[in-house]
Amino acid sequence: MFSSTHVDDFANKDPIPLQVTLGDPLKIDCPPHGGSYGASYTWANKDNIQLNRAEHIAITPVGTLHIMFLTQADVDKISELKGIACTIVAANSIFESGLVTLDPQAGSVQEKAPSWEPSSLSKSSEIAVEGRNKTLYCLALGRPAPKITWKKNGQQIINGENNYDIPDLFFGRQLTIMDVKKDKHESPQYSCEAENKMNSGNPLKHNIELQVQAAPRWRLKAPAEKLEVDIQGNGTLLCDVYADPVPSFSWYKDGTRIVSSNTNVKIENDKLRIENARMQEDGVYQCVAENVHGMIVSSTWIYIRAKKPTFDPTSGPFYLFKNSQGVLKCEPEAAPPPTFEWYRKGSKITTGGRYTVQKDGVLLINDVTDDDAGDYRCVAENFLDKAEYNGVATVYERTRITVRPEDKIVPERVNIDLRCRAEFDKRLELKYYWKRDDAIIKFNSKMEWLEGENVLKISDIIFLLVAPVESNHEPDVFTFLHNVTNPNATSVVLNLTGWSTLRFRMRAVNSFGPSRPSLPTGAGICRTSQSAPEKFPENLRGVPKRAGELDIAWTPMPKVYWSGPGFYYILEYRKVVEPASEDSPDQWKNVRLPDQASTFKVDNPGYYELWEFRIRAGNNLGPGPFSAIEQSRSGQDPPEGQPKNVAVQIVQARSAKLSWEPVAAPSRGSVDGYRIFYWGTSLLANARRRRRAIPSYANSTDVKGRTTSETTVFDLKPYTSYTMAIKAFNSGGEGPASDEIDLATLQDVPGRPADVKVFAFALYILITWKPPTEPNGIITNYQAGSAKYTGSEPKDTPVEMTQLAASKRRHLIGQQEELTNYVVEIQAKTEPGYGESVRIATRTVKISPPAKHNAPTVEPTGIDKVRVICEIAVGGGYTHEFLVQYRQKLEGEEFVNSSWIDYLGGDLDLEIGNLESALYQFRTIGRNDQGESPPSDITEARPIPGIVAGKRSTTPIHQSAWFIALLVLIAILLIVLLIFVLYTRRRGSKYPVGKREKKRAAHLIDRESFDEEEGPYQHQGDENPPPYQSQGSLDKRDSDRDSLDDYGEGPQFNEDGSFIEEYGDEKKPPADEKDQSAFATFV
């Protein structure tokens, strides 16, 4: 989101004198000017010295100046400024009106109750936009200047809370809602109230209904950047947008608007549907959602996919289990989806009997028997081609649980064993999983699976009943009410709130966790009677504001504790006499406040005066108990002193001890403590530091007490350069900052290595990682290793570690055993030692050839070469060697094999050279002692574009691009030079004398002699004067005459002989001034 500003200049900048009367209101509109948007207004003199806002002086958001009652001081100030002008600032533009001056007349001083200024009042119905700021403004006139209070739903709005900002600059007249949220800020009951002593207790009120709307935004997420649709298939693109008002939608394809639906592309407001897709539907589709507050645009490439059926060559065999339903899947990659046929022993399988061929290619075999083992063939066909897959089905015995866990009733704090055993086909591997409430149990110290004994061991069982309650004041919200610790209890006595309809439910708890809740009791069974409140509001506290201000705040009581209708608060407060005197204590003042109130502003509390207060709640049946008495002082000014001589005492890796000289105590007010600000940069970043003001992102910690002179700052980051500064503070704010001081924390043990991944093969385990996100110093090395473990968790299995260089990011652990559980551990080290390790459990696979590699990564490294990085995959044995197969992407091209590369020895990539500047296809094959992997998927890439070294261009020089470009450049230069010469000749800057005189002489042959001192030519018979001499001479040609005799003594020549007076751009006066009229027409 961005903001823009625009403003135009004033229509008239004439001075504006005004006759005014002292004591009367004065309103001066900003003079007429062009349209403005996003501009700010001030009133200032020509030196930009401003007339500041004050309690009785307001400048509205549109620049109108209001002086509620004109005083002699106001007149003197404007006179001192020599007048004031409305000044508009927008972006880099500043415009000033004419100066306004005042001619004052005597007047009377008359106090007036507040009245609204209609032109400077927010409308009774305003619209705000979510995520943006909204400003409300209320200007009331009166004498004394009215005080403005902002409220929402009858509760006073506190500056700085809930994103509300009431800037001091506007003296309460402006309310800004920052980052508007609908659920937080929308309300029909905003109000501004104006009050002075003329209407004390009966404020003037203006109500504002604020409706929050929203610019378009994605409801959950934007449409996908790419959508694949099979040819002849269907696809839907949803533009899921939330906006208020409801947005309009428009759709574009490749930048052109889709005006209406057609057979294949259907538009339904926020949906675009592709039906029976053709290749013509491929392209970039954009959705534009727009309302009055903005727009949002998405871009999606709809890729129409057409592919003949192909099968993954590594697809595994089929596993069938006797006496159950067998599922044989046929899953080719194809677009459009193909049709399927199944064959066994050369015969086609059709739906019927025990066989069902589903539309998606799945073959179902009911009640599997041994006879169902054997070869099966699936044929997939679409309009592009057909393909087939042959697979072998093996029939296994079905796994059966022979020993089932038994239900048990046991006393609390005992251990139990649950047994489970199963029979299975010995050709398979069996794993046990335990579940509780359909969730897999994670084993811990209280629940342990003894795999060799097939026993689940549960230790130290406990039992607890929890009773939650739901109130009609908060329906569907169950609140914790009581713990029943006796597992044999069947009833309990509860202390309930009044004036409520309650429902209850129970939940049992043991060492495993809570049970599901019971069904709640019936609605209306439990109704409590009305009574006076039994509780008082919590968190009663004083909130000192600016100097001479005090708010009293508390946490509103939930409705469940009201105990009856007509709920209210009674707040009592009084000033504490200092020194204390029993003879004349201040009387309690009390105020009754509505149920939603949470603050109260004390009127004229004085500067740093001590007050005490208490609160209680009441309803129609009477008041409840008072809270304890709390005390607070009213507001004060921030401290003026600056902490001196800040010094560093002790520095550790995560803490630093500072000392300073305390600030002197003020004559009035206090210093409550010190705030230490600190910010820094890791020493690993090698960033340049510069001194500056305390940044907004600085952290801080407080220490209480004026006389405190030292503290330890904790939570610092190791190996970091910090800057620190200290400010004294009190309830009025912070004082000036001390001089900054720099320090560097020590190194600490590092955090855990990041992004650790473990890849288990048969005889090897590969670990990859990244440096710790919290290195806490300079990493000196890593250590990693693996260890076998038994049971369900590795727990404290010790691991033998191998030291690794700090630069390493992968480590291959050899000499592992197949089909074995291992725990892998890795940790980093700095100078202080090793940090926390990462432990990951894994299991090696069966000894086998390498699994099919992932598609290789190919990086161009030159104009005729690339680097191919082998990307191995898990699921098979580790790759010992690999080769690269590559070919140009041309029909009929065969793959070329590289030599075998020692992957096990650390060669992870291969550079291939002598390539053409063309598109190539690359794939890899791995091998180990058990055999080769299938070829990987293909990666397409080309060398860096350019002329391949060693090849000669056969293009003739006259057809070469550089030669043609050179010719064009020469032609352009010649044209520019010709234009320059012609321009110079026409302007007559300086001409050679001979050529000038030839032209001039040729022209004078047919004319009378001309004496420049006598006047212009006397051309007989012509009504109009002849053309200029330079113009007339261009039409004549005479090469014989080259004399200056005809020119006389008038115009001058330069030293180089150039005649400059008549032809030059600047004219000089004639040498003889005796007759200026003679040159009246000589130009």
From TrEMBL:
GO CC list: membrane
The portions of this protein that span the membrane are 961-983
**Main localization, broad class:** membrane
What InterPro entries does this protein's entry cite?
FN3_dom (IPR003961), FN3_sf (IPR036116), Ig-like_dom (IPR007110), Ig-like_dom_sf (IPR036179), Ig-like_fold (IPR013783), Ig_sub (IPR003599), Ig_sub2 (IPR003598), Neurofascin/L1/NrCAM_C (IPR026966)
SUPFAM superfamilies for the chain: Fibronectin type III, Immunoglobulin
- Fibronectin type-III domain: from which residue to which, for each copy? 536-637, 642-748, 749-851
Kindly indicate whether the keyword Cell cycle belongs to this entry.
Answer: no
Q: Where in the cell is it found?
A: Membrane
Q: Which Pfam families match?
A: Bravo_FIGEY, fn3, Ig_3
Q: Where does the source fall among the domains of life?
A: Eukaryota
How does it sit in the bilayer?
Single-pass membrane protein
- Ranges where the record places region Disordered: 624-644, 1002-1083
Is Membrane there in the keyword field?
Answer: yes
Q: Which PROSITE patterns match?
A: FN3, IG_LIKE
CDD domains reported for this sequence: FN3, Ig
Listed Basic and acidic residues bias regions:
1034-1044, 1065-1076
Alphabetized, the UniProt keywords read:
Disulfide bond, Immunoglobulin domain, Membrane, Repeat, Transmembrane, Transmembrane helix
In this chain the Ig-like domain maps to 114-209, 216-298, 309-402
Q: Which GO terms describe its biological process?
A: cell-cell adhesion
Protein name (Swiss-Prot/TrEMBL): Neuroglian
Q: Provide the species name.
A: Pocillopora damicornis
